[in-house]
Amino acid sequence: MTLNLSELLTKVERIALQAGDAIMAVYARDFSIEEKDDKSPLTAADMAAHRVIMAGLRALPQGIPVLSEEDIGSFAGADANGRYWLVDPLDGTKEFIKRNGEFTVNIALIENGRPVLGVVVAPALGVSYLAARGVAAFKVEWADGKTAERTPIRVAGKPTDGATWRVMGSRSHPSPDLADWLETLGRHDMVPMGSSLKLCLVAEGKADVYPRLGPTCLWDTGAAHAVVEQAGGRVETLEGEALDYAAPSEKLNPYFVVWGHGD
Hints:
The protein is an alpha+beta fold and 263 residues long. It has two domains: 5-152, 2-Layer Sandwich (Fructose-1,6-Bisphosphatase, Chain A, domain 1); 165-259, D-Maltodextrin-Binding Protein, domain 2 (3-Layer(aba) Sandwich). The chain has six helices and 14 strands. The strands form four sheets. The protein has a seven-stranded mixed sheet. Strands 12-14-13 form a three-stranded antiparallel sheet, with helices on one face. A two-stranded antiparallel sheet has the order 1-2. The relative contact order is 0.15. The model has no long low-confidence stretch (mean pLDDT 92).
């Protein structure tokens, strides 16, 4: 079955915005913090967003299975067309707890191991990033609850020789391997940020590169990966291979680099 990705993108954007509303309802009040088996934090906002997204995606007529961070056990694998939804209902829970606004809703459509559609909503910042194969990549900023027009985005391109690289870094997950990598890169300025926003800033041309030399899961990157690719960038392993989502049972990504240019 051939999908209309443009139409699907609009529907998934709506679902992600509704999940963002559910997150902000918790953000506005006191909330408790639990600890999952992997020692990562969990709040009522994670689960509220999860429920909204699961209901929304399951209501779509395509019947594509869903892999959500908050319900891994219910996922039986991709469908016969190699498709599945890859969801992080609240990416950047640590940032949510810190109340710094740097958290997102991530929804990606994976097809044969590749992210072909992605929606990233940062509800506290009033911004969304979305993209689909054959459509384009966009940024949407809104105020007072009213969604603005989509603005097409593109990566900045490779910095010229001798220029200072604008590097995105993790705010909550420092990496001991990063210093050596940055020394090889050359002159640079580092900007720390939480969640998948780091990839999105590369996609819109506000940063040149994001090296992630530390653990991440598939749902942390899938949606923003789609945005980067449709904006003209790359998300690659350290060996130069495209980051792949064909084996969701493995859950963990290898180390990777997000490049704001196509070569």
